[in-house]
Design goal:
single chain, about 270 residues, alpha+beta, Alpha-Beta Plaits, 2 domains, 10-stranded mixed beta sheet, 10 strands, about 30% strand, globular, tRNA pseudouridine(38-40) synthase activity, PsdUridine_synth_cat_dom_sf, EC 5.4.99.12, PsdUridine_synth_TruA_C, PsdUridine_synth_TruA_a/b_dom
Length: about 270
């Protein structure tokens, strides 16, 4: 029995999220269907994490077990021929037997993109939340420092969270700004990207942080309030849940003991 890991990118616009649901139309459903067409038997895939409806992924990782002898360098091309155009397998590796895409992960990075140009970008509207008013980028950056480290993130997760613990560690939280966008160079305009890297994320955690950050950017809250919101451990203390289409799962990292080298796998595929 082999353990296969896939590096997958997808545009989540047309899907009801990653995880399989009774009504279907999820990324997991499409992946499992493609594998079934290839192997002639059903296979259950395990993702590194769930993404909600409308959320995208550049570096989602999935794993599954199979007796198939298909050479590892052929998996990506074979599956892409059976997948819709908005889901792409970028690489495949044969992992150790005990590898599991979710349980073996040690770090994940998410990006939330905000477009504060006066007018929305018609070509990028599915991947960035349009906020038509200028934002205070320096204040937003200042607030992020309060989130670094190990904290109880109850204030930044949905009340529907089923996790037994809301303690997580954020290793990095940064906001990058690209000025302009629609030709207007006014201060506070352009596209900005919130990057969060941590050992794990709770349900809606990144989107609630982004929604709170937007309130700080608007001047409705001050940067130091982020620390008080965190300490409150109360979802009502934080801002709204930002829209899903601005969110992308960028990458998932694993320890060296698993021997997962995506760059080598991509190079080998070529």
């Amino acid at each position: 029995m082999r353990t296969i890991a896939l590096l997958v990118s997808y545009d989540g616009t047309g899907y009801s999220g990653y995880q399989s649901q009774p009504e279907g139309n999820t990324v997991q459903d499409r992946l499992e269907h493609a594998i079934r067409l290839l192997l002639g038997e059903p296979v259950k895939v395990h993702g590194s994490g769930r993404t909600d409806a409308g959320v995208h992924a550049l570096g989602q990782v999935v794993s599954f077990r199979t007796d198939s002898r298909i050479p590892i360098e052929r998996w990506a091309l074979a599956l892409n021929a059976r997948l819709p155009e908005d889901i792409v397998v970028r690489a495949a590796v044969e992992a150790p037997q005990a590898f599991h895409a979710r349980r073996s992960a040690i770090r994940k990075t998410y990006r939330y993109m905000i477009d504060s140009s006066q007018f929305p970008d018609v070509f990028g509207r599915q991947y960035a939340f349009h906020h038509p008013k200028p934002l205070r980028f320096d204040a937003m950056r200042e607030s992020l420092r309060h989130l670094i480290g190990e904290h109880d993130f109850t204030s930044f997760t949905s009340p529907n969270s089923t996790k037994p613990s809301h303690i997580r560690t954020l290793y990095e939280a940064k906001l990058l700004h690209l000025p302009g966008g629609d030709g207007f160079q006014e201060e506070g305009r352009g596209k900005s990207c919130l990057y969060l890297t941590g050992n794990g994320f709770l349900y809606n955690m990144v989107r609630i942080i982004a929604g709170t950050l937007l309130q700080i950017g608007e001047g409705k809250r001050q940067p130091e309030e982020m620390a008080r919101i965190l300490a409150a451990r109360d979802r009502a203390a934080a801002g709204p849940t930002a829209r899903p289409h601005g969110l992308t799962l960028m990458s998932v990292e694993y320890g060296p003991e698993w021997g997962i080298d995506w760059q080598a796998a991509i190079h080998r595929r070529r």
